[in-house]
Amino acid sequence: MADRLTKITTRGGDKGETSLGDGSRVPKTDERIALLGEVDELNSWIGVVLSHGPSQTIQTLLEDVQHDLFDLGGALCFPDAPLLSLAHVERLDKAVEQLNQDLTPLKEFILPGGSPLLSWLHIARTKARHGERSMAHFIQNQTQAEKTTSHAIPYLNRLSDILFIAARHEAKHNNIAEIYWKKEKSVQG
């Protein structure tokens, strides 16, 4: 990265606008900019998960995810750029299969918690779902050509699944009891 970021503070956004990768200026309230922020926030939450020492399997997977999310943010900076590829989605599909192999089938809903690592995985999962909803809204407002070059919605959908499965995987790997929802604890129960 030879002098790519020589100046971090440019003051270019002081009036409520920012530049896209193609040089065009848009308001900071633009839907694309909001979505960029959500992708960045999700990537940051995954960084929190990584800082809590997951197993090597989850660490490797989430490091790849962080690069994918950075790619997605970069693509969002350029109008008409493809938003991820089918290969990104297929990599997560393969990871879902591998992680699910050793897990017992669910018979009850799981509540977030059990350990800091599991809790952070669930926070990241909910941020992925939020990003998925925002991406769906964003894509809905794009042209037909832009819609066909996007694999971002399926990617974020799989990512939220992966983060849920990763929490289950880490619970098993670290011998942490999962917290199940119990009907008798519900006021309606």
Beta-strand portion reads 5-15%
Order of helices and strands: EEHHHEHHHE
Mean pLDDT across every amino acid position: 90
Q: What is the fold named in CATH at topology level?
A: Hypothetical Protein Ta1238, Chain: A
> How are the strands of the largest sheet arranged?
1-2
Total beta strands:
4
Helix content: 55-70%
Which class do the helix and strand fractions yield? mainly alpha
The largest β sheet comes out as: 2 strands, antiparallel
Shape from CA axes? elongated
* Low-pLDDT sequence parts: none
Please provide a written account of the structure:
The chain has 189 residues and is mainly alpha-helical. It has helices spanning 31-51, 56-76, 86-100, 116-140, 144-148, 152-173; strands at residues 17-19, 25-27, 110-111, 179-180. Helix 4 (116-140) packs antiparallel against helix 6. The longest helix has 25 residues, at 116-140. The model has no long low-confidence stretch (mean pLDDT 90).
